[in-house]
Design a protein that fits this description.
Blueprint: H1 2-9, H2 17-26, H3 32-39, H4 43-60
């Protein structure tokens, strides 16, 4: 699954990987406009990449669905 994430979401982008991580880490602190100014990219490009990364992260972080018999020990 890690290779799939890398191949589909990082390898084909024109943004350096360091800038993509910078965008991810600062989305909740800074506006898209400010990020685009800091990185020297157009607003539309930063907006697009941030949305793609958010969608991918949300898709990959869904809660697992449990099935069958499940045992829970020492639950308080």
């Amino acid at each position: 699954m890690r290779e799939q994430f890398h191949r589909d979401h990082f390898a084909s982008k024109k943004f350096p990987i360091g800038e993509m991580f910078y965008i991810i880490l600062n989305l909740d602190k800074k506006s898209i406009k400010r990020l685009s100014e800091e990185l020297g990219h157009k607003w539309e490009g930063v907006y697009r990449i941030s949305n793609e990364l958010k969608e991918c992260l949300a898709e990959k972080s869904r809660d697992p669905v449990l099935s069958g018999e499940i045992e829970i020990d020492e639950m308080y």
